[in-house]
Amino acid sequence: xxxxxxxxxxxxxxxxxxxxxxxxxxxxxxxxxxxxxxxxxxxxxxxxxxxxxxxxxxxxxxxxxxxxxxxxxxxxxxxxxxxxxxxxxxxxxxxxxxxxxxxxxxxxxxxxxxxxxxxxxxxxxxxxxxxxxxxxxxxxxxxxxxxxxxxxxxxxxxxxxxxxxxxxxxxxxxxxxxxxxxxxxxxxxxxxxxxxxxxxxxxxxxxxxxxxxxxxxxxxxxxxxxxxxxxxxxxxxxxxxxxxxxxxxxxxxxxxxxxxxxxxxxxxxxxxxxx
Length: 275
Known about the structure:
By secondary structure, the protein is an alpha+beta fold. The protein has two domains: 22-205, Alpha-Beta Complex (Nucleoside Triphosphate Pyrophosphohydrolase), CATH 3.90.79.10; 216-269, Arc Repressor Mutant, subunit A, CATH 1.10.10. It is 20% helix and 37% strand. The chain has helices at residues 6-12, 77-89, 190-205, 221-232, 238-245; strands at residues 22-34, 46-54, 64-65, 68-70, 95-102, 113-123, 135-144, 148-154, 159-170, 175-182, 249-258, 261-269. The strands form two sheets. Strands 1, 2, 3, 4, 5, 6, 7, 8, 9 and 10 form a ten-stranded mixed β-sheet that branches.
């Protein structure tokens, strides 16, 4: 049927003529924190970690998931993500960027649900509040090649493993399609979200300043290098690392002493750098 005006169309419009779907916001929260170092003369070991929440309702009861929830009918998607972070993880005012949208018709057994995922970054040592009782930080370990990504998550009490199959979709942009090959402890398609977020963070860490959202205000260059290395999953030669961060940091007049270390000059993020 053809309409002569917008008003005529709206008058005849019936929302029940269209299939309905629901929208969720799921948040992938990454952090880097200090572990315990046996040798007091060395820097504390850094851990790259992700926050998961154990579901207490069906579907996927007792499985782990990313913090997430349904977007309200009168709510902006990013506002929903911020609300969910506060409600499910007791976390507020952190770096947040949209990751991907997931729309497999079978991704949720309840109904047709599309999810917009977000990646959040935080320095776990600076969290003002403890996370919710059913949430836990899992240290992340990744073994990756051109065809697969094997991810191990460990919170000290439980170990989760999943495997992602990678298929090159676009050679000019090095873009891959991800498929879940092995998974038994994480709900929905959230292994795909975790794998995609790891890849996004690795890709952005060397050409943007995104890593500083996971750093304290003051840090040593050794600590910063550890964070780069634990996220990238590889050692960096000192000259190469210094080139990466040359314009991104600024030396301060502060010095850290004690702990069996020589006094260390502290740096901070250079938010006035010239691009």
